[in-house]
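On clarity, I found the account of how folds are encoded harder to follow than it need be. For illustration, here is how one protein appears when written out as sequence plus structure tokens.
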Amino acid sequence: MKSSTLLVILAIQAVLVMGIFAAVAKENAVGESKAIDINPGQLKCCSSCNFSFSGLYTCDDVVKKCDPVCKSCAVVKTYPAKMFKCADTFLGMCGPPCKH
């Protein structure tokens, strides 16, 4: 019973992964979206490093100034003080947790 359940789970996982690859390939072939720009660097620190199903990581920390490694720094708050978030996607971990 356990081996058949494991086999079903592995088959479903394989179908999901193949579906994601097919969707990405279709988008890139048609040109509807640009490829994900992966930042090979690592942030000095990140307390909210989020893993996505694609194997990429993003840092959701809201900071006063983006790390110099960050290629795409987005303004997320303007009042009472301007705050930023690094919108880059990282392959591997974002960085060690920040010490406050």
User: Anything to note?
Assistant: The longest strand covers residues 73-77.
